[in-house]
Design brief:
ATPase_P-typ_TM_dom_sf; membrane; elongated; magnesium; Rossmann fold; alpha/beta; EC 7.2.2.10; 8-stranded mixed β-sheet; 17 strands; 15% strand; 9-stranded mixed β-sheet; Calcium-transporting ATPase, transmembrane domain; Calcium-transporting ATPase, cytoplasmic domain N; 659 residues; transport; single chain; 24 helices
Length: 659
């Protein structure tokens, strides 16, 4: 199933999930970063994504670069790369233009200062000392942000000032790449005569420069478009989630245009809202409540903004599942109702914060968790639906028949009730809980947090079946002796009533395989071997009881009585056609009838419940006071005993002194 469940209750919670907030990299996409297009030094362009005859391929682009241009690009990439997925794509690009072994390239460079990636700046940098004694700052990061720090452009021959037309053309280029679902990374640089520059020293370390102070008036080197293909089956899985009433949201660090394009390819973005994290963060509570239902993509989001998104969704009553793989996803994973982490590419922090680990790092495995979660919830509700009917009828039949009998003898004995309530119910629970999930389970909306465990449809089935069983049982017990010509209140009629009542439960177990108003209760029954085995075992045990269990169960053998077998099986099978009739009754009509009929019961029950609650609290208070008084008496007795012992010791010491 590719789901490792760390917290067992999360599987049940996932069945009621109403929204999924997913990271992009490695979950919706394959996490295989490849540089497919780029523009450097103003005019040198390559494109391996679009298959038109006019595009320059990467191999030809590499041949057109001068040695100085290759050296500058290779230094900017090799010295400023980490373990991020996008860096792997850039390193592959650097190898394509002539980079040697990475360890050798890095050992040949003299690094003066490293500036790690910062989610606020959306960039990282490195300062390299060149062979001529000068210094070069190489910065890599979000293209639309770094473009704002540049005032010049690096061309093949020299450096020139960036005009408004140049800036507009680069902005259009970033937008063009982003619309092709490409992550855009910009490379910018700047030379310095000394490091740190005068007036830009870091207050905490004078040998290092304040990065914010030097990140201005930079020179634009180039921009690349990095492709990360979608995982197979993701659009189909997202569509199934929407059919199941689960809304999907993409939370990513990409810019707005790239995020929208990828979300559109996945089927996540339709006509909803796309927003950047910093903008989302400053919304008021009222604005968030208005925005969140239509928010489909959150771009340029930080860990804190992811956590805020999850928290606000839960405050609106949503059951939130979060999918993440990095350390920065930890707060959101912890804040969610169900957290999913990646088993292959996920960090240990993400795995510890999650409830379920996706062993294949695939979004489609979340759909599996959703199906099994709903199957678990359905198993509990199926058994409850079966159990309530049995308990209602067993209690009423035993009570009424005992009160109506002159010797206070119920029609169902204690041993028979034990068989019905302990053995049969346990077997039914195993049978009803073993139905595996199917695609059909995704055709309905998830239950809300406030939804009752027993729905109106379930109550309709419970009450309807209980009425049928009560009518059948009492009619047979009090009317059948005259019709069949057998003694009333004898072993034969009691045996017939017991056999019929048990057969009603067995057929009703089939009826309870469905929680909706659809008629086909046999759908998929023969694919569930556990159900078939348990069902046949219950029938076999009942036949054995009716054949050889006379003394233990206080019944008469009906082995040779074809008439009694036919009556018990035929009437006992009425639960199935009657279940169809019950399903034909509209839920709204049953709800209205239940409110009218049940109102007197409620009027009596509520005061009685409040009175019994008050009496229970008073009794508990009296018991607590009695217990406290007994404890205080024991404390006083111990204190008196200690005082007596101390006084006797003092007297003994005085007598020894006199002697």
């Amino acid at each position: 199933m590719n789901n490792l469940v760390r917290i067992l209750k999360s599987c049940e919670t996932m069945g009621n999930a109403t929204t999924i907030c997913s990271d992009r990299t490695g979950t919706l996409t394959q996490n295989v970063m490849t540089v497919v297009t780029g523009t450097f030094f103003g005019t040198k362009i390559f494109d391996d994504k679009n298959n038109s005859a006019n595009e320059t391929r990467l191999a030809l682009f590499a041949n057109n670069l001068s040695n100085d241009e290759k050296s500058q690009l290779i230094d900017a990439i090799t010295t400023n790369s980490t373990a991020f997925e996008s860096d792997n794509g850039l390193l592959s690009f650097a190898r394509s233009i002539g980079m040697g072994p990475l360890s050798e390239e890095r050992s040949n460079a003299t690094i003066i200062q490293l500036v790690p990636f910062d989610s606020r700046r959306k960039c990282m940098g490195v300062v390299q000392r060149l062979s001529n004694g000068t210094y070069r700052l190489n910065v890599k990061g979000a293209s639309e942000i770094l473009l704002g720090h540049c005032t010049s452009m690096c061309s093949s021959a020299s450096t020139r000032s960036m005009t408004s037309e140049d800036r507009e053309a680069l902005e259009k280029l970033v937008d063009l790449y982003a619309k092709q679902s490409l992550r855009t990374i910009a490379l910018i640089t700047k030379g310095f005569e000394q490091w740190p520059p005068a007036g830009c020293e870091d207050e905490n370390d004078r040998s290092q420069a304040d990065f914010d102070a030097v990140l201005k008036e930079m020179i634009f080197t180039g921009i690349v478009g990095i492709q990360d293909p979608l995982r197979p089956g993701v659009p189909e899985a997202v569509q199934k989630c929407h059919m199941a009433g689960v809304s999907c949201r993409m939370v990513t660090g990409d810019n707005v245009v790239t995020a929208r394009a990828i979300a559109t390819d996945c089927g996540i973005y339709t006509d909803g809202i796309v927003m950047e994290g910093p903008v989302f963060r400053i919304l008021s509570d009222a604005q968030m409540a208005e925005t969140l239902p239509r928010l489909q993509v959150l771009a340029r989001s930080s860990p804190e903004e992811k956590r805020i998104l999850v928290t606000k969704l839960r405050e609106l009553g949503e059951v939130v599942a979060v999918i993440g793989d990095g350390t920065n996803d930890g707060p959101a994973l912890k804040a969610a109702d169900i957290g999913f982490s990646m088993g292959i590419s996920g960090t240990e922090v993400a795995k510890e914060a999650s409830a379920i680990i996706l062993m294949d790092d695939n979004f489609t495995s979340v759909l599996t968790a959703l199906m099994w979660g709903r199957a678990v919830n359905d198993a509990v509700r199926k058994f409850l639906q079966f159990q309530i009917t049995v308990n209602i009828t067993a209690v009423i039949i035993a009570s009424v028949s005992a009160l109506a009998s002159s010797d206070m003898r119920p029609v169902l004995t204690a041993v028979q009730l034990l068989w019905i309530n302990l053995i049969m119910d346990s077997l039914a629970a195993l049978a009803l809980a073993s139905d595996p999930p199917t695609e059909e389970i995704l055709d309905r909306k998830p239950l809300k947090r406030s939804a009752p465990l027993i729905s109106i449809t379930m109550w309709k089935q419970d009450i309807g079946q209980a009425i049928l069983q009560l009518i059948v049982t009492f009619t047979m017990y009090y009317g059948a002796p005259a019709w069949l010509g057998i003694p009333s209140d004898g072993l034969e009629i009691r045996s017939l009533v017991f056999a019929t009542y048990v057969n009603l439960q067995i057929s009703n177990m089939l009826n309870n395989r469905r929680l909706d108003n659809k008629f086909n209760v046999f759908q998929g029954v023969f694919k569930n071997y556990y159900f078939v085995v348990v069902f046949l075992a219950m029938i076999g045990c009942q036949v054995m009881i009716m054949s050889v269990g006379g003394r233990a169960f206080s019944i008469q053998r009906i082995t040779d009585r074809d008439r009694d077998w036919g009556i018990s099986i035929g009437i006992g099978s009425l639960s199935l056609p009657f279940g169809v009739l019950i399903r034909l009754v509209p839920d709204w009509l049953f709800e209205k009838i239940a409110k009218v009929v049940g109102k007197p019961v409620v009027l009596v029950y509520r005061p009685l419940h409040r009175w019994s609650g008050k009496m229970g609290r008073k009794i508990k208070g009296l018991r607590r006071k009695s217990k406290e008084s007994k404890e205080s008496e024991k404390v006083e007795e111990v204190a008196e005993e200690e005082a007596r012992v101390e006084e006797e010791g003092r007297r003994t010491d005085v007598e020894k002194g006199r002697a």
